[in-house]
Structure formats: C-alpha cells, structure tokens
Amino acid sequence: MSHTAHIPSHRKPRRSASKIALRAGVAGGVLSTLAVAAAAGTANAAEPVTETIEMPTLTTDLSAQIAQSADATQQAADTYESRAEQDAAATKAAKQAKEDQAQAEKKAEAKRKAEAAAKKKADEERASRSTERTNLSTQTTSAGSSDSAPAPASGSVGSVISFLKAQLGDAYVMGASGPNAWDCSSLVQAAFKQAGVDLPRVSQDQSTMGTEVGTSNLQVGDILYWGGKGSAFHVGVYIGNGQYLDAANPGKGVVIQDLSGYPASGAVRVL
C-alpha cells in the first residue's frame, strides 16, 4: 500500500464520457434555439406582420331578413313622407277652397245686385215703351190711314215711327238705301238706327233679331216679317190699328197697308 493512499487526492474526479456528451448536446441545442430565434427576429423585423380576420359568412336567410327589414324601413319612411305631403296639400287646398268660396260669394252678390238693377231699369223702360206705344196707337187711330198725318215723335219707338212716316211716297228700288229710294230691309234698318239700334242689312237676318212675338199680340214698333224666321223675304214695321208701314214693291213704293190684306208670318220686338 502506498504511503499516500490514505491522503485524499487533490485531483478532480474524471467525468464520464456520457455526461460530457450530454452537456455538449444541451449546449448545442441551446445555441441552435438562439440561432433560430435570432433568425426569426430578423425576419419579423424585415417583414410587417399582417393579421387577417375572417368575418363570418351571412347565410341566405339572414341576408333576406336584413333586406326585408331595410325595405320595410324605407317603405315606412316613404309612407310618412307621403302622408306629410298629402296633409300639407289638403291644408293648402282647404285654404284655397275657402278663399275661392268667399270670392265666388262676393261675385255672386255683385251679380245679383247688377241683375236687380238691370231688371229695375228694364221694367222702367218697358213701362215707358208701353205707354209710348199706347199713345202712338191712339194718335195713329185718330189720324186714320192718311199718309200725310205722321205721329209725333216720342222716345225711341216714336223716333222709329216718325222716320218711317217721313219716307212715305219714296220709291222702292232693290238694293237702295235712301235717302229717296229704299228696299224693305234698308228702310227698316235706317228707321231703327234713329233709336240707336243697329240691325242687320237683309230681311233674313232682321227676322231673327230681338224677341219673337205672336202676330196676335203686336205692339207699335214691332218688326213684321213674311216667310220663315231666318229666311224671311220681306219686312215692315207695325204702326198700330192693324196697320204696318213698309217699302212694298216697285209699284207702290213706301206705303202704309192693312195686315188683313197681307198677314205677316211672324214678328220680333227689338225695342
């Protein structure tokens, strides 16, 4: 036995080969991990990371429900807007109708007043003409059938009769219009012009003027016509007492005649 055997050796014990290999493997693995991490870090630093979020896919039923809901909302909005427009239009129409009614009532009142005034004036004129005709008829009856006794002029009808009687004895010439020759319609036209009444030139048109009256209800100043209304071929003027004055024909000229000898077809009243 060696004399140093009882002294512990100062040398470190040898490691086994297996432990050394294990430690080398671990160290290598750590270095490899660090290398990979460094490479990854470099790559991450070079390229930005983009994250993609995948949205959920809408199903057909859900899409249809959303579309229907949107349509319903739009329809409701359209309905409210339409109602608002209708209400505004109705309010405006009611206001306009009220204004129109007030205006119409105002016009109607003015029209009623004007008609009442016109009726009053017409009644007064009618009464005056009736009195005038009565006086003329009386004067004509007193004068008889004498062509040389003209009735005195009095008012519009009187001016017509006075003018007609002033032309007694003038010639009848077709198409003539005075002052010394006439045809039937030109004489009537000129006579009524004295009263401010403008008559058409020909007998056909004169027979359609004024108001139609029966030949059994004649008044002084009525226009007599022979033939159809609107197609008359002759005209004269009633002067009362069953007589009329006219431009008869080339053989007679302007004369006074009895209706009993040549009854008229009709009569019109313009005064």
Task: Map the helices and strands.
Blueprint: H1 17-46, H2 60-143, H3 155-166, E1 171-172, E2 181-182, H4 184-193, H5 203-206, E3 211-213, E4 223-226, E5 234-240, E6 243-247, E7 254-258, E8 266-269
Parallel strand pairs: 1-2
Antiparallel strand pairs: 3-8, 4-5, 4-8, 5-6, 6-7
Helix pairs in contact: 2-3, 3-4
Can you put this structure into words, describing what you see?
- By secondary structure, this protein is an alpha+beta fold.
- The chain has a domain of 135 residues: Alpha-Beta Complex (endopeptidase fold (from Nostoc punctiforme)), CATH 3.90.1720.
- The protein is 52% helix and 12% strand.
- The strands form two sheets. It has a six-stranded antiparallel sheet. It has a two-stranded parallel ribbon with strand order 1-2.
- The chain is elongated, with a radius of gyration of 63 Å.
- About 12% of the residues have low confidence.
As an assembly, this protein is single chain
Helix and strand sequence: HHHEEHHEEEEEE
Helix/strand structural class: alpha+beta
| Radius of gyration, in angstroms, nearest whole number | 63 Å
Binned, the helix content reads 40-55%
How far is it from the N-terminal to the C-terminal residue, by CA? Answer: 186 Å
CATH class category of the domain at 135-269: Alpha Beta
Number of E-type strands = 8
Q: How do the strands of the widest beta sheet line up side by side?
A: 3-8-4-5-6-7
CATH homologous superfamily heading of the domain at 135-269: endopeptidase domain like (from Nostoc punctiforme)
Strand content: 5-15%
| Helical stretch tally | 5
C-alpha geometry: elongated
Largest beta-sheet characterization: 6 strands, antiparallel
| CATH fold name of the domain at 135-269 | endopeptidase fold (from Nostoc punctiforme)
At CATH level 2, the architecture of the domain at 135-269 is Alpha-Beta Complex
